[in-house]
Amino acid sequence: MAEEARRAPNDIRPSLTDEEVLEFCKTGILRLEGVIPESTNRWVFDYLDRENTDPHDLVRDEYFFDEVLLHPAVAGVIRSLLGAQFQLPDWMANHRLVGPVEASYWHIDAGSNFERACNLLQVFYIPQANTPEMGPTLFLPGSHLVPIAREDVERFGSLAGQQMTAAPAGSVFVTAYSIWHRQPPKADRSTRNLLKWVYWRTEQPERDWVADPNFDFGGADYTHSSDYFHGPARMWQSVPRVAEMFYWLCGKADEFHMVGGAGWPYSSTDPGFRADLP
Ligand SMILES: [Fe+2]
């Protein structure tokens, strides 16, 4: 049975700026490399290595709460994107792989809705350094706003723009729930742990992160650039979705109005954008 979920304390300070929140709307992933200290990583790794360990027990552990779930570098990001008093996880999963393992398919997790909102965040934490041979998760930045059926996304192989989460020990990846992801082949003989959990919003969205009073909503760049078949390219189709998600996060969903056609939010990006559109 699930524990009663706890809420974040009131003294957590948001850490993201307008530009950083907008960047998260574009990519659906934020990398915090090596933020959890080595002593904590070692404790978590040893804990997971014990016989009969249930990773779920970590959500009852005060040390894990303080050192990982509410680590200032992590909590500041979550506080920025989910607001005050966000709900802490009441479950914990460990995607543990031992020895060589085949790749999994691209997939979206159950219940993905590709919403232009941010009511929950799925977070991944690696307590040990991950090399490419250890099967670190691949994510496709920007895909959290691209609706697709689960059975269709499974057909894809290597995707232009995919990002591998090979990273130092103590890295944390904050993701929009609907982002496409997969585990690549694990080629080496190591044992790999990947903890995963979800934080939830409990308050209405408002722009109470490190906001800049001079931020220009009308002139901001809502395009996400990704590696495409022939090099970097702007992902034009997502522009209104990115802008809508950002407005929602700002608590300004009522003020989001598409002009239509090639008008705002396309027009704010690049005076020459018409020539770029296919
Ligand atoms: Fe998954």
What would you say this structure looks like, in words?
There is one protein chain. This protein has 278 residues and is of the alpha+beta class. The protein folds into two domains: 18-200, Jelly Rolls (Sandwich); 225-271, no CATH class. It is 22% helix and 15% strand. It is built from seven helices and twelve strands. It has helices at 18-27, 38-49, 62-69, 72-82, 150-153, 239-249, 273-276; strands at 29-32, 93-94, 97-98, 120-126, 138-139, 163-164, 171-176, 181-182, 191-192, 195-200, 225-228, 231-234. The strands form four sheets. Strands 1-7-4-10-2 form a five-stranded antiparallel β-sheet. It has a three-stranded antiparallel β-sheet with strand order 6-5-8, with no helix packed on it. A hairpin with a 2-residue loop joins β11 (225-228) and β12 (231-234). α1 packs across α6 (239-249). The protein is globular and about 60 Å long. Mean pLDDT is 92; it is low at 274-278. Bound molecules: fe (ii) ion.
SSE blueprint:
Layout (H helix, E strand, L loop, with lengths): L17 H10 L1 E4 L5 H12 L12 H8 L2 H11 L10 E2 L2 E2 L21 E7 L11 E2 L10 H4 L9 E2 L6 E6 L4 E2 L8 E2 L2 E6 L24 E4 L2 E4 L4 H11 L23 H4 L2
Antiparallel strand pairs: 1-7, 2-10, 3-9, 4-7, 4-10, 5-6, 5-8, 11-12
Helix pairs in contact: 1-6
This protein binds fe (ii) ion (FE2).
Fe (ii) ion binds next to loops.
Multimeric state of these chains? Answer: single chain
Helix/strand order, N-terminal first: HEHHHEEEEHEEEEEEEHH
Protein structure class: alpha+beta
Bound molecules: fe (ii) ion
Give me the CATH fold name of the largest domain. Answer: Jelly Rolls
Q: What is the CA-atom radius of gyration, in angstroms? A: 19 Å
